[in-house]
Each structure stands twice: as structure tokens, then as C-alpha cells.
Design goal:
By secondary structure, the protein is an all-alpha fold. The protein is 72% helix and 0% strand. The protein has 4 helices and no strands. Helix 2 packs across helix 3.
């Protein structure tokens, strides 16, 4: 998956001040935060599999997919909608 961002010239210069290669810096940031989120999801899902006495899938990718398909976790956007709806009710 590719993401595109647009920086002003000033923002570009600022990134070049803090990072040798801004593209690499952004990619590393996204990959590291994704790794942390995967670990969080896996921990939650494995606990749920154990609680239900169900076999745990073999890979982190399968565990994350199962967590979503079983409804055990929601995207940030879905969570925000739920919270907004609860405030309105």
C-alpha cells in the first residue's frame, strides 16, 4: 500500500533538517508504528482465543485478520464513530 503526502517547501526543508532521507524516515515511522499495533492486536486476540478455548492461528497476519473478522477490534475510524454515537445518545 502506498500513501502520498504533500509538503510545503518549508516543511520539506524542515524534514531535511531532522532526517538524512525524509522518505526513509517516514517509511520507518509507519512500519515501526504498524509493528507496535500488530503486537497489541496479537496480544488482545491471543487472549481472546485462549478465553474462548479456540485454536490460535499460526501467523501474526492470520491473527490480526481473525481479530478483525471476529469483531474483537475496530479501526480507529470505527471506534470514533461509536464514541460519537454514544455522545449523541
Amino acid at each position: 500500500m502506498n500513501y502520498t503526502i504533500t509538503l510545503t517547501e518549508t516543511e520539506k526543508l524542515a524534514m531535511e533538517y531532522i532526517a538524512y532521507d525524509p522518505q526513509e524516515w517516514v517509511e520507518n515511522l509507519m512500519k515501526e508504528r504498524s509493528r507496535i499495533a500488530i503486537d497489541e492486536i496479537v496480544k488482545l486476540a491471543v487472549n481472546k482465543f485462549l478465553e474462548l478455548g479456540q485454536p490460535t492461528p499460526a501467523t501474526k497476519e492470520e491473527i490480526v485478520n481473525a481479530a478483525y473478522s471476529n469483531g474483537w477490534i475496530k479501526t480507529a475510524k470505527e471506534q470514533s464513530k461509536i464514541q460519537t454515537n454514544n455522545l449523541i445518545d
